[in-house]
Specification:
The protein has 16 helices and 30 strands. By secondary structure, the protein is of the alpha+beta class. The protein folds into six domains: 98 residues, Phosphorylase Kinase, domain 1; 195 residues, Transferase(Phosphotransferase) domain 1 (Transferase(Phosphotransferase), domain 1), CATH 1.10.510.10; 59 residues, Trypsin Inhibitor V, Chain A (2-Layer Sandwich); 71 residues, Trypsin Inhibitor V, Chain A; 53 residues, Trypsin Inhibitor V, Chain A; 62 residues, Trypsin Inhibitor V, Chain A, CATH 3.30.10.20.
Amino acid sequence: MVTTAPTDPMIGRLIDGRYQVRSRIARGGMATVYLATDLRLERRVAIKIMHGHLADDTSFKSRFVQEARSAARLAHPNVVNVFDQGQDSDMAYLVMEYLPGITLRELLKDYGKLTPEQAIDIMEAVLAGLAAAHRAGIVHRDLKPENVLLADDGRIKIGDFGLARAATANTATGQALLGTIAYLSPELVTRGIADARSDIYALGIMLYEMLTGEQPFQGEQPMQIAYQHANDSVPTPSSKNPAVPAELDELVMWATAKAPEHRPADAGAMLDRLIEVEKVIRGEQPTTTLQPTMVLAPAFSGTEDETRILNPAVRAHTQATAPNRIDSLASTARRRKGKGWWLFLLVLLLAAGAGGTGWYFGQGPGSVVTLPSLKGADPASATTQLKDLGLAVDTRSVNSLTVAQNKVVETDPPSGTGVNRGSAVTILISAGPKPIELPALAGLTQADATAKITALKAKVATPVAEQFSADVAKGVVISAATADGTDVSKGGASLQGARISLVVSLGPVPDVTGKTFDEAVATLASAGLKGVQGSQDYSDTVPDGSVISAAPATDGPVHKGDEILLNTSKGPQLFPLPDVSGKTINAAKAALEAEGYVVTIDTNVPKSLWGTILITSTDPAANTPVKKGSAVTVKAQY
């Protein structure tokens, strides 16, 4: 099976005899997340493995275990489920629910800012999950778009409770700053203390980013951003995006108030307000304001019968302006009472003379209604809203990359259009991303494969994996797979918006046979490989110090950075020439030939006497180191 990151030695490993690692999903500061198969329950899971260099750090290890405990305490549809936690040898791991899809960060990267309705839909799900955490006494402390998961089936979940702590715990500044600096609350920056309201601040920054497409505070150095969090106020989203409603401006301002006591007490409080804002934006109730909430003193903790004390500045302003406001209201009432009689008569005259016309253009077929924005709504709710406006409703399925399946994508005519009451309006319901059929990708160049994938509105996963191949030319695709590990090298079914992982050939490993060791190392280094000393063997054909053969240090595909074992020559093996002195010519010749040497006789002795005449010497001399099979001359004289 093709893997997302084939250079990773974890790919293919069986953890704890149960979890078969398939591919790498993501890598963070503390751990790497892989797609794996639970062989016992036959299901796909995400397995988070703590980095090996942190295994001996007890603080990191305890934080890793804390994530499992924190997340396991939460059973909520908007929180990533934790199934298991354990240790395999010196490796700590955490098994979680696998959600194929993208993060909110990826969505923002691809589409920039979101519409108010999209931002509300995402924020409702995040707040619902976080409210469950806050009720359980858990503070996330690292909320950011990277930790909001948008599943392919429309589910939205919070993940990565790696920094979670009990809501009542105070934490050191150094630990607090482990959270991403762009979303840290002022109290975390200045005092290193986090509670549920610190999470609310992070959500306020996230909501601002969704509505505007950028973070409110930016700088070249992290400390510049931290300083702005501690000293500056977050601007209103509408100052960057005029399309943002005032109600969402107020919600962002409330959530990002400098003082924690001026923010919502927890995610549940902010969720309640968001639901009210949603009703206002969708035209379901009159507009309200957050102003009273924002100017009250810290949250009231007494009983219903106890006196509630306003902020002193607000109380003074109220006392100073109350008489004037009472006088103004009384004056307005008197004016309305004085002219009420002729207004009544005017209404009667208009009703008598133009009643029919008024009905036709006010409530009848001649009246015009503006189509509301229904994007992301349930079809049943959208149908009810349109029928309440006096419109005939039809439905049609369409594919969508951005709207969850079985949710409203848009209306036809589109929202904001004025139509006559009684007109037919079609609700376009998302059928999810459009199915596509990928062509055969293996054998194409990387550029050609990328072009074919993007032409189908799918994406190439990055980084693109590379490996050496003796069979596939450099730059050509070896294999391809979808995010869930399905092999599509020869083509196959997928969806628009899906990420396709490619494995591209680097060509064959350079042939370094016959090169000196140093030459071989340099040649391999130029190809991104590391030559290391392998075995040293005798060779009659390869000079001393040169490479006899080369092979990868580990089994499987060869990737950049891998080690290549270089087996080098010690030259030919030498043996001491046997001592045949004191033997006859024939006996000496036979002894040397038996050892594999090529014997030449140098003598003036007749051959008939070789069996009786003793040799005088050999060349080379006895015990001289020589190769097996060398030529030896035996000498003898009368």
